[in-house]
């Protein structure tokens, strides 16, 4: 008995309907509407192997419309992915089920990325497509020749990030990127006509994309559109006219099927209309077997690919160094230490953004999988070096991208690049514009991706650009994100160490916060040990009978040292602690933390920004000195004076405290 595509699609529909109903929570309408498109894609076109979900030459399938997560979970279960079982689907949206409310990235599971915040998956796919072109250029089209497929919704395209990412994809001519637009014209509030009247054809053609419009429930049209897209020399958007809640007599085509269970009575009517007589979560053997055959094809595809790989001289794992490798870590430490020794001789006064550029320059030859870029601020962030080569539509072999003024799109694309296969992306902008990147930063932290954010112009120290460009609350807001290491180095030595710590962090992203203004070299001697990995360490002790501990990060470490000198003249002994990374310090032993921040001392924190994240280190009588108001447009030294961030003012505050 030949199983028809619509029967296979109905298996997806009813698993989705039943899971949402059992959870009494979820979005059944989108999986019901896009089941036909997804079934045609998986049955006839998608190259994947459920027995090896991490096969590098697999097609990537991204569900950007993450609210329809049951579509993805159903497909993974039906095609035989081991990490998504029927019991997981029955426990949709329940504690510890891989079938979370929105897809959450799990390595080697078939869930390629975390989606839900609309537009993110779409933008991740641009990073995946960029990474694929980098690998294809290095290893050749016989080894890397896959596609990136995306299902996106009206909501994805309403979000501003969609413009940034789709524009970039068109500019770079990422022809292996194919997006299915679930064009059902329904959002949570009702018809999309309430809020949008875009001409999608003109919009995407202006980006340099192909635009194909089809009936999303017509197998032949779906098939034909995918074939056209596969042979295109541009990225392609396939606008699929679909009916949300397809098969529901009373809720199809309506927002009532978007974000709530259909209800038992309506589900009975859907079963009757679609001629599905099976009880909840039961898939007939003949349909389940047909789906398993679709999954089984991938094993043969990978075997053929391995034959091709073995014929070539390519060794992907060896050519793109795995940073788990102890030998690599040792080489990295050797280079970092060599650079420390070099700069210790001259002790240059440099802006840490310039220090960072020197580090990148030294690392580019060691790390072929380090790929950088900037949101139109290459010269200001100093992310582009003398040995950077530009990635463009004419040269996919480059290691540096001009992302344009697209901070959000850049950050989300970097997530996609990190997800691909051992690439380490870094990208730069001003710290004040980290707000534009925040949703993507949060997701890289949630997924545990090794992404490195370079944020320069870190404080009022940028001066004349004024309060619109002077970050105040931004360090605190970044430090509030779980699993994000926020580094603020004080000189060249610390910048080297912060880069080393970021590159060796395989379990999450790092933000390296850099100054515009020159900072004096403050480190006492080069050390093979990375002190920044401790989060905080003692820079200088003026006398063992010290009563005051000054803690600071970045440019304010220099301020702390000059304050220490003034205190010494007043016969007040003190200790200066540099705290480049609060997150790493908080992970140290209680013994170490107590040694650095002695409880009997008056502790004074210094930072040219919001003070709220420093209070956790302070006792009742201690002092947090910083800025909790917006800056000024003036030379930076004058602004520091205006905001009481001078040694004279700090010494005066300390004297008053010690008298009490």
Average residue pLDDT: 96
Percent range for β-strand residues: 5-15%
CATH topology of the largest domain, anyone?
Rossmann fold
Largest sheet: 6 strands, parallel
Count of extended strands? 18
Shape estimate: elongated
Order of strands in the sheet with most strands: 9-8-10-11-13-12
CATH superfamily of the largest domain: Thiamin diphosphate (ThDP)-binding fold, Pyr/PP domains
**Low confidence ranges:** none
Structural class: alpha/beta
Radius of gyration: 28 Å
Indicate how many domains the architecture comprises: 3
Please tell me about this protein's structure.
With 660 residues, the protein is α/β, with parallel strands linked by helices. It folds into 3 domains: 5-308, Thiamin diphosphate (ThDP)-binding fold, Pyr/PP domains (Rossmann fold, 3-Layer(aba) Sandwich); 326-513, Rossmann fold; 533-659, Rossmann fold. The strands form 4 sheets. It has a 6-stranded parallel sheet, with helices on both faces. β8, α15 (378-381) and β9 form a beta-alpha-beta unit. α2 (29-45) crosses α9 and α20 crosses α24 (647-659). The chain starts with a helix and ends with a helix. The model has no long low-confidence stretch (mean pLDDT 96).
């Amino acid at each position: 008995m030949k199983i028809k595509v619509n029967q296979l699609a109905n298996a997806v529909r009813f698993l989705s309907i039943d899971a949402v109903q059992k959870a009494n929570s979820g979005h059944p309408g989108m999986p019901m509407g896009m089941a036909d498109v997804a079934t045609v894609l998986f049955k006839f076109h998608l190259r994947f192997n459920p027995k090896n979900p991490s096969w590098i030459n697999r097609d990537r399938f991204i569900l950007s419309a993450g609210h329809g997560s049951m579509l993805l979970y159903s497909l993974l279960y039906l095609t035989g992915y081991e990490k998504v079982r029927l019991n997981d689907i029955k426990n949709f949206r329940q504690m510890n089920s891989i079938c979370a409310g929105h897809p959450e990235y799990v390595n080697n599971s078939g869930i390629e990325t975390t989606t839900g915040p609309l537009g993110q998956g779409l933008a991740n796919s641009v990073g995946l497509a960029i990474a694929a072109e980098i690998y294809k250029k290095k290893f050749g089209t016989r080894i890397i020749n896959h596609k990136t497929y995306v299902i996106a919704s009206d909501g994805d395209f309403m979000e501003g990030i969609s413009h940034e990412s789709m524009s970039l994809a068109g500019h770079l001519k990422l022809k292996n990127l194919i997006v299915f637009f679930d064009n059902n014209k329904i959002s949570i509030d009702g018809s999309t006509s309430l809020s949008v009247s875009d001409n999608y054809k003109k919009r995407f053609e202006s980006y340099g994309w192909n635009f194909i419009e089809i009936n999303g429930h017509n197998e032949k049209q779906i098939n034909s559109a995918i074939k056209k897209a596969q042979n295109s020399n541009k990225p392609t958007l396939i606008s699929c006219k679909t009916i949300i809640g397809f098969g529901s007599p009373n809720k199809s085509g309506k927002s009532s099927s978007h974000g709530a269970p259909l209800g038992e009575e309506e589900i009975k009517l859907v079963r009757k209309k679609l001629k599905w007589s099976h009880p909840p979560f039961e898939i007939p053997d003949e349909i389940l077997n047909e789906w398993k055959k679709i999954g089984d094809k991938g094993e043969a595809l990978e075997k053929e690919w391995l034959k091709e790989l073995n014929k070539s001289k390519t060794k992907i794992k060896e050519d793109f160094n795995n940073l788990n490798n102890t030998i690599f870590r040792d080489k990295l430490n050797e280079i970092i230490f060599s650079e420390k020794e070099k700069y210790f001789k001259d002790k240059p006064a440099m802006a840490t953004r310039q220090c960072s550029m020197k580090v990148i320059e030294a690392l580019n030859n060691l790390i072929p999988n380090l790929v950088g870029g900037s949101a139109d601020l290459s010269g200001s962030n100093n992310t582009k070096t003398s040995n950077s080569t530009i990635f463009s539509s004419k040269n996919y072999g480059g290691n540096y991208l001009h992302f344009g003024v697209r901070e959000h799109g850049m950050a989300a694309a970097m997530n996609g690049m990190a997800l691909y296969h051992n690439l380490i992306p870094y990208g730069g902008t001003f710290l004040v514009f980290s707000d534009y990147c925040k949703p993507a930063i949060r997701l890289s932290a949630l997924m545990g991706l090794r992404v490195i954010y370079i944020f320069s112009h870190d404080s009022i120290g940028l001066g004349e650009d004024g309060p619109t460009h002077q970050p105040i609350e931004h360090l605190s807001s970044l430090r509030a994100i779980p699993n994000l290491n926020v580094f603020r180095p004080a000189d060249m030595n610390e910048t080297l160490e912060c880069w080393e710590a970021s590159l060796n962090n395989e379990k999450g992203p790092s933000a390296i916060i850099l100054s515009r203004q020159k900072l004096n070299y403050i480190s006492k001697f080069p050390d093979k040990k990375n002190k920044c990995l401790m989060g905080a360490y003692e820079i200088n002790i003026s006398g063992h009978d010290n009563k005051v501990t000054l803690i600071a990060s970045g440019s304010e470490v220099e301020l702390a040292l000059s304050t220490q000198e003034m205190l010494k003249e007043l016969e007040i002994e003190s200790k200066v602690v540099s705290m480049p990374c609060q997150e790493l310090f908080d992970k140290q032993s209680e013994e170490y933390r107590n040694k650095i921040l002695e409880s009997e001392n008056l502790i004074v924190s210094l930072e040219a920004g919001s003070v709220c994240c420093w209070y956790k280190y302070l006792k009742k009588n201690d002092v947090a000195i910083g800025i909790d108001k917006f800056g000024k447009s003036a030379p930076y030294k004058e602004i520091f004076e205006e905001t009481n961030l001078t040694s004279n003012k700090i010494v005066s505050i300390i004297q008053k405290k010690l008298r009490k």
